[in-house]
UniProtKB/TrEMBL annotation:
Record flagged with keyword Transmembrane helix: yes
Pfam family, one: DUF1295
Stated name of the protein: Uncharacterized protein
Keyword Signal belongs to the record: no
Annotated Gene Ontology cellular component terms: membrane
Domain of life: Bacteria
Transmembrane segments: 6-27, 34-52, 58-78, 104-124, 136-154
Keywords tagged on the record: Membrane, Transmembrane, Transmembrane helix
Native species: Bacillus selenitireducens (strain ATCC 700615 / DSM 15326 / MLS10)
Amino acid sequence: MLELYLYTAIAIFVFMTTVFIIAQIITDNSIVDIAWGFGFVIAAWVSMLATQEFTTRQLIVTGLVTVWGFRLGIFLWIRSIGRGEDYRYQNFRKNWGKHAVRKAFFRVFMLQGAFMLLLAYPILRVHASDGPGVDFFMIAGILVWLVGFFFQVVGDAQLQKFKKNKTHPEQILKSGVWRYTRHPNYFGEATMWWGIFLIVLPVELGWTAVFSALFINFLLLRVSGVPFLDERYKDNQDYQQYKRETNNFVPWFPKKED
């Protein structure tokens, strides 16, 4: 397991350093978001090739991570065309002043690389010690992963269509899957990691992979996902109404106010 982590850590470091260099050339640190999904694809393939084992469970985990990572990375890349640096990273750049390049390397790119290594634990775990063949946990995990994939893909597609057609900047999307959760794309990402956890559960020490699922929930709910959007729309009255009526994360029917 330690050897797998070493190989994966080296691969992630090289990848994120390369992305950092490109970001400085084009003055856009927000491309780190595009790199996020691709980083897990690299972790999955490096760890699988390092073990030279290609069992059903390993191939399924690697395949699901590859589909998710490429889909997310390509989607974010296409969405970023012509938009310039995201406002969050613009604010970081302004606040960091003359230390912006150094701080971006450690506090954006290397930090996200470290998060990748932590979250990739179930991927490395399944490659380090494979479990039984097709079983209940594998089937259940795939089904849970598909639910998450549905919410992320459909949520992203509906949001993109809404942005193209909305009549004013402060308008809020409240239809489709966004009627049942304010963050269907984040819910989908977290759910996919719970699916991966279920698939990995039967392998040796597979239960320890619950850490990754809990960690991604923490990041999305408390650090980099939900808080940014809630802060951004704190003065938007339409969003505040939407916030009172619609579940924050887990999908459910809208609340009816008295």
